[in-house]
Structure formats: structure tokens, C-alpha cells
Amino acid sequence: MPVFTGEAPEPAALERKVFSTVGLPAARRTESWESYNAAALIGLDVRVAGPLDAVEVNVQLPRVRLARVSGSAHAIERSAAAIARWPSESVAIYLALRGDASFTSADGTRELRPGDALVCAADQPFARGFARGLEELVVTVPCSAILPYADPSRLRQPAITSFRAVGGTGPRGGTRQYARALARLAGRATAGEHPLPPDEHTVLDLAAVLVAGRDVAVATAHRVAAQCYIEEHFTDPGLSAQQVAAATGISERQLSRVFAADGTSVPRHILARRLRLAYSVLAAPLSDEARATVAEVAARCGFTSTAYFSHVFRQHFGLRASDLRHGTPG
Known about the structure:
Layout: E1 16-20, H1 26-40, E2 45-47, E3 54-60, E4 65-71, E5 74-78, H2 80-85, E6 90-98, E7 101-105, E8 108-112, E9 116-121, E10 126-130, E11 134-142, H3 143-146, E12 159-162, H4 176-189, H5 200-212, H6 218-233, H7 241-248, H8 252-260, H9 266-282, H10 294-300, H11 306-317, H12 321-325
Antiparallel strand pairs: 1-3, 2-5, 3-4, 4-11, 5-10, 6-9, 6-11, 7-8, 7-10, 9-12
């Protein structure tokens, strides 16, 4: 495994914001929800028949916004007026977890159910309805961030795919596996316990694949297939570049070139994901009785040596794992 050298410690904390209309005066809930979403995610007009009960958990990465949204029955509209007032210049990906929904755009109305992923241009008018409430994950990516890999103008017609159970991780197996991987990353980042920051390059690659579909560049398809496999298996201490290459369907040498083009390597990517998970577990506000030791956390995250884990953890985050576990970082 590589050791991080010559780099400043990575910022460790995942900044999460939580907003809820519950407890607000009924007359203020809709306006407050609109104002919050305009600043934190996407500007929308909201229509409700009664008081809106809604909660949103937001995670802001350098270029990507992630959210977990739940709420009672309501409808939203991204009208031309809303777009002019709150331009987004982004791609929006909605991953339905609970509740059926309708989606209306210029090409008609479609029905979505849990396990469906909707990919659309945020600056094209649309409306959505949640007759029985909802829970969903939302990912917004600036169009400029995915232009090197996919053309967002393809989304003049929104795309819907499923992220229900899927087998295989090959690069040309359709978009289902990538929507599922994106749902897993967004879900972990916005989880109430042990939130795990996603790798932003992986999120951008997944968004590009969902926009471009089968037209995505082969190198991007190979990289994101490998990233998906790593995300599923990085806690396995025996995970190797050879295994990742075999699962992706390419040679180790080709896999190395794919990751090198992104400024990293397979071992470094695996190590970074393990360290991120370890940080989220060690920082969790659990009772003393429930807290695992540093050695137990290291093993849970795929490390076979506690000494090595402690060394790379301090290099990566600028603090000792033992200090974080005891609540005295620094």
C-alpha cells in the first residue's frame, strides 16, 4: 500500500446541514422551504394543500451538491420564471427511495417509483408531484464539471433509469449499475450515522455516464466501472488492482493508465476510501460502551496493520486516530 507523502493533510470533516419545516408556523413552511432550497440545492416553486412537513440533509462538495429529502405530499415546479430567478447551470439527478412521483416536462408526463433515477437539465422547465410524500436522494453537478466527459445538451429530453438490484460491473452494461452506485455514495454521505464523504471524482464520473449513456468515452466507462467495484469491496483487506482489473474487464496495465490520467492510482484510491470510512467511524458520537477501538476500526476498514493504519491516518488527516477516537483531535 502507498503512503501519502508531500501533501497537506486532507480536510477531514464532512459538512452537513439539516433543515426542517417541522416546528415552523404552518403559514411560513412553504416559503421557508422554497428559500432554503434556492440557496442549498435548486430554486423551486412549491405547492401544497396543507402544512408541509419536510426535512433536507445537505452535503456540499467543491463542485457537487448532495441531499437527502423527505416530506409530506406536495408538488414542485421549476418554471421558466424560477429558472430566470435561480439559474443553476447544472444537471440534476433524483434517486427515488420512497413514494411514487410524477415528472412533467416538455415531452410529456412520466411516472416514477422507488428505485428509479431521473436525470435532467436543471435549467429546462419541469414539474414534479408527490401525492403521498417522498424520500429521495438528489445530486446536482455543474454542467461545466462534466463537459470533458459528456455533453449536457443531451438532456433536453430527461432520462429515467433504474437503480434496483443489478449484477456485474462491466463498463458497457447500461446505466443501471451506475445509478445504483451513485445512490450508494449519496446515501452514505447523507446518512444519519457514520456519514461517509464520497470521492468527488467518482460522483462526477457517474454523473457523466448517466448523462451520456452508451456514448460515454471508453476510458471514462472503464474508470467508473472500476470505482464502482472498489466502492463495494474496499473494506476487503485482500482487494487488489488485479481483482479490480478483472472485474472491470481490462488488463492491470490499462487500468493503471486509466487511473493515472485522473492523477491517482488504484492503491491510492482504495487507501483514501478506507481512511475516509475510518474517520467517519472514529468520529461518530457513540457511547463509550459502543465505541470500537482504533485497532477494531482499522480492521473493519480493510487494514491488516494497526501501526500502518495509524501512520497513514495521521499523514492524511493531520491528527492521530487515537485522539479522534477519544474526542480530542489536534
